[in-house]
């Protein structure tokens, strides 16, 4: 367990990281107290890694009382899958995997012409929620990521189709989270809603949390598509007209390889990354996510269908 | 190449991880320019990044507007952009070197009063916006009343569109005096007025060159410096038990039994004599673990685990408090409520009541009166006695009877242990937000 320095109890406000941490822990414990079968969505990205770290602190010295669920697009970075499996083994967690590839193989999903599988995740996710009867699903979504996410509640009720209706959200008052739902409905829970990208990195630094190494500067073969550096892979890149080059890059987000772009960066340590994003003029998603650029309401539309 | 991190030495705010956090809410009537103000605050504090601004500029140009419409930064939903209004509370984040801010951006439409209540429930400061030309209108009084009801400790009146009244000092003073008198009469402890033009950027982040007569801080400067830290040693200690931790493992924690929760108010120390409510059992705090680290004391806002000296029966929903300043559990709750659901609430309704970590059955015994926030006379609000039902956005006094006793504080004593929700038992929807005890604070009284 990571330790923090005891700052004593001098009067005054908590630091912003302590306040955010205490709030997230409170959310995890509320879910453990009120739901039958919660699960943590775990992608191996920094937000879900921080989420898992917070869950471990919330229930220390007991085990995290939730399993993990990974929606595997089949186009993951190998470093991330390796990280996922190590974390699961190290902390004696249970892992469920929902495979997009299986759904494509049995004809229930069809590959998109652009090769992007990110939007395809919704169907396997919803089926996993239904078949395992998960009633609360933790996601690492942050409100600072995107305009539609800024409207998201910490406890977000989803109907029997997994759909989000922004006009029918429950008001969320004080720290009184209402997790009541009917049979067939479930609640998406976002314990790090109030964190920003910078908070996440500062917390990673403070808590000395290990991350998949693709978050740090490395030389990689990439090619340019739609103004982003994408990694060549089985998912269908590069095309004949796209030239592969070697560049020193890192990833700001980790998702499906087909739509997650790398950024040119010399940042090799957490401190370097913090210095870099503190002065970046691009948002994390703007810099690295092709799927959010599809339309002005791309995220809202996906969330309405059951995306997290 | 948009995939490149563009580095600009002046942009962004490298926030020290030791800075504090301020939660604030905004409120304003339709067309007072609230979205523009929030957009300006984000933009001028360099919290809007170039890809977001590009998107806003592109959409503004497509609509035939020459300049980027900063309001588009905050209206995130399709319906909001289509209608040009804000429908729902959104949360925004920005930071300066001095503070981190979580801003609850609440809509101004009269039918969305519940949204202002939502935003104000967690806010330490509320920004109420008025149009300098119109001054204090009904909706402004409603916003002040909601801030007072929710006991938001600090209220800032932003007198906007000063450019449209020739930056007139007299006009500003007139509006500010009317508002301050009203808010003080309702018991808002700290009121500050700032003349701004959100559109032109006057006094939002940068001082205005058009209003030399104003010597106060800009809005952002005030947000950065207003003291919101309260002294937790001056408040009663309250610990709602969230979850019982019993690892039952084979290691050193085999016999560990801890009560996890977030301290609602005050300070707990090792060896404090405490009572578990509502059962009334007494014991001593044997140890405090703060997320894995043993500490001798812990204070408001911290999520910790308490270990108790005796093997008492404690479960989720109980409240741990010092024996000499514990609340008296009650089944009769008198409270001010804001009805937030479209379905009405009627006398005789059976509902669930969620207070801290405890949910109990409750019955609505009486709706004593509905407050009329729009027609105040010298700070006294109008009352409608015994309405037959409450509709969405109504604020009223109710009497409830609960199936089990609740360790409830007055909302004036603690926002966290004095607040509750009424929930529809059938479909789980949130019906009503409640605040126990007297409706309005006595003037000049402050509570965190």
TrEMBL record, chain A:
Domain Phosphoadenosine phosphosulphate reductase: 38-261
Disordered: region residues: 289-308
Pfam families, alphabetized: PAPS_reduct
Cell inner membrane keyword on record: no
Source taxon at top rank: Bacteria
Enzyme class: transferase
InterPro entries (UniProt xref): PAPS_reduct_dom, Rossmann-like_a/b/a_fold, SO4_adenylTrfase_ssu, Sulfate_adenylyltrnsfr_sub2
EC number: 2.7.7.4
Recorded family membership: Belongs to the PAPS reductase family. CysD subfamily.
PANTHER family: SULFATE ADENYLYLTRANSFERASE SUBUNIT 2
Record protein name field: Sulfate adenylyltransferase subunit 2
Phylogenetic classification of the source organism: Bacteria, Bacillati, Actinomycetota, Actinomycetes, Kitasatosporales
TrEMBL record, chain B:
GO molecular function: ATP binding; GTP binding; GTPase activity; sulfate adenylyltransferase (ATP) activity
Name of the molecule in the record: sulfate adenylyltransferase
Organism field: Embleya scabrispora
Keywords: ATP-binding, GTP-binding, Nucleotide-binding, Nucleotidyltransferase, Transferase
Domain of life of the source: Bacteria
PROSITE patterns reported in the protein's UniProt record: G_TR_1 (PS00301), G_TR_2 (PS51722)
Location of the Tr-type G domain: 19-233
Pfam families assigned to the protein according to its UniProt record, in alphabetical order: GTP-eEF1A_C, GTP_EFTU
EC number: 2.7.7.4
Biological process per Gene Ontology, one example term: sulfur compound metabolic process
EC supergroup of this enzyme: transferase
InterPro entries: CysN_GTP-bd, CysN_II, CysN_NoDQ_III, G_TR_CS, GTP-eEF1A_C, P-loop_NTPase, SO4_adenylTrfase_lsu, T_Tr_GTP-bd_dom
């Amino acid at each position: 367990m990571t330790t923090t320095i005891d700052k004593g109890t001098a009067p005054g406000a908590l630091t912003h990281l302590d306040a955010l941490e205490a709030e997230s822990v409170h959310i995890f414990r509320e879910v453990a107290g009120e739901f039958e079968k919660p699960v943590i969505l775990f992608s191996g990205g920094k937000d879900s890694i921080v989420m898992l770290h917070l869950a471990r602190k919330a229930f220390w010295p007991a085990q995290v009382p939730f399993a993990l669920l990974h929606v595997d697009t089949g186009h993951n970075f190998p470093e991330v899958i390796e990280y996922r499996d190590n974390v699961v083994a190290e902390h004696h967690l249970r892992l469920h995997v929902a495979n997009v590839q299986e759904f494509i193989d049995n004809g229930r999903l069809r590959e998109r012409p652009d090769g992007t599988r990110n939007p395809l995740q919704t169907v396997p996710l919803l089926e996993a929620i239904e078949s395992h009867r998960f009633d609360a699903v933790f996601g690492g979504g942050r409100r600072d990521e995107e305009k539609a996410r800024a409207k998201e509640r910490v406890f977000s009720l989803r109907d029997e189709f997994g759909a989000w209706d922004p006009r029918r959200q429950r008001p969320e008052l004080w720290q009184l989270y209402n997790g009541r739902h009917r049979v067939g409905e479930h609640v998406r829970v976002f314990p790090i809603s109030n964190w920003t990208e910078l908070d996440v990195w500062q917390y990673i630094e403070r808590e000395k949390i290990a991350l998949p190494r693709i978050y740090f500067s490395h030389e990689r073969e990439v090619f340019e598509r739609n103004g982003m550096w994408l990694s060549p892979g089985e998912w269908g890149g590069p095309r004949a007209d796209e030239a592969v080059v070697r560049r020193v890059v890192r990833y700001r987000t980790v998702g499906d390889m087909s739509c997650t772009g790398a950024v040119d960066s010399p940042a090799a340590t957490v401190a370097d990354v913090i210095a870099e994003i503190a002065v970046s003029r691009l948002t994390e998603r703007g810099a690295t996510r092709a799927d959010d650029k599809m339309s002005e309401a791309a995220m809202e539309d996906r969330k309405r269908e059951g995306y997290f | 190449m948009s995939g490149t991190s563009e580095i600009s030495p002046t942009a962004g705010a490298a926030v020290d991880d030791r800075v504090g956090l301020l939660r604030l809410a905004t409120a304003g009537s339709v067309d007072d320019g609230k979205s523009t103000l929030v957009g300006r605050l984000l933009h001028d504090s360099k919290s809007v990044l170039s890809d977001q601004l590009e998107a806003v500029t592109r959409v503004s140009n497509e609509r035939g507007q020459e300049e980027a419409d900063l309001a588009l930064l905050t209206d995130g939903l399709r319906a909001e952009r289509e209608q040009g209004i804000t429908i729902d509370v959104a949360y925004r984040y920005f930071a300066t070197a001095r503070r981190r801010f979580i801003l609850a951006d609440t809509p101004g439409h009269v039918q969305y009063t519940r949204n202002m209540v939502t935003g104000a429930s967690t806010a330490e400061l509320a920004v109420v916006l008025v149009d300098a030309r119109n001054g204090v209108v009904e909706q402004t009084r409603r916003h002040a009343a909601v801030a007072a009801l929710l006991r938001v400790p600090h209220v800032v009146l932003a007198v906007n569109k000063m450019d449209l009244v020739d930056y007139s000092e007299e006009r500003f003073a007139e509006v500010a005096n009317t508002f301050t008198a009203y808010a003080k009469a309702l018991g808002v402890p700290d009121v500050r007025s700032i003349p701004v033009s959100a559109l032109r950027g006057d006094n939002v982040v940068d001082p205005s060159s058009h209003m030399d007569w104003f010597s106060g801080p800009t809005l952002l400067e005030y947000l950065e410096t207003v003291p919101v830290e309260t002294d937790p040693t001056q408040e009663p200690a309250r610990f709602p038990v969230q979850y019982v931790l019993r690892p039952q493992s084979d290691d050193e924690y085999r016999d560990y039994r801890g009560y996890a929760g977030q301290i609602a108010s005050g300070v707990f120390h090792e060896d404090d004599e405490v009572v578990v409510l509502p059962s009334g059992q007494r014991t001593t705090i044997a140890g405090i673990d703060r997320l894995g680290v043993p500490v001798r004391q812990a204070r408001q806002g911290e999520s910790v685990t308490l270990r108790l000296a005796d093997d008492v029966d404690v479960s989720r929903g109980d409240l741990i408090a010092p024996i000499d300043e514990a609340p008296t559990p009650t089944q009769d709750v008198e409270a001010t409520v804001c009805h937030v659901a479209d379905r009405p609430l009627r006398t005789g309704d059976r509902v669930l009541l969620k207070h801290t970590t405890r949910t109990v059955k409750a019955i609505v015994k009486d709706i004593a009166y509905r407050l009329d926030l729009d027609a105040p006379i010298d700070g006294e609000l109008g009352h409608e006695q015994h309405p037959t039902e409450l509709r969405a956005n109504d604020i009223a006094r109710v009497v409830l009877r609960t199936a089990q006793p609740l360790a409830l504080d007055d909302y004036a004593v603690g926002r966290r242990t004095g607040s509750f929700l009424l929930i529809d038992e059938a479909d789980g929807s949130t019906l009503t937000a409640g605040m126990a005890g007297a409706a309005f604070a006595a003037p000049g009284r402050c509570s965190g």
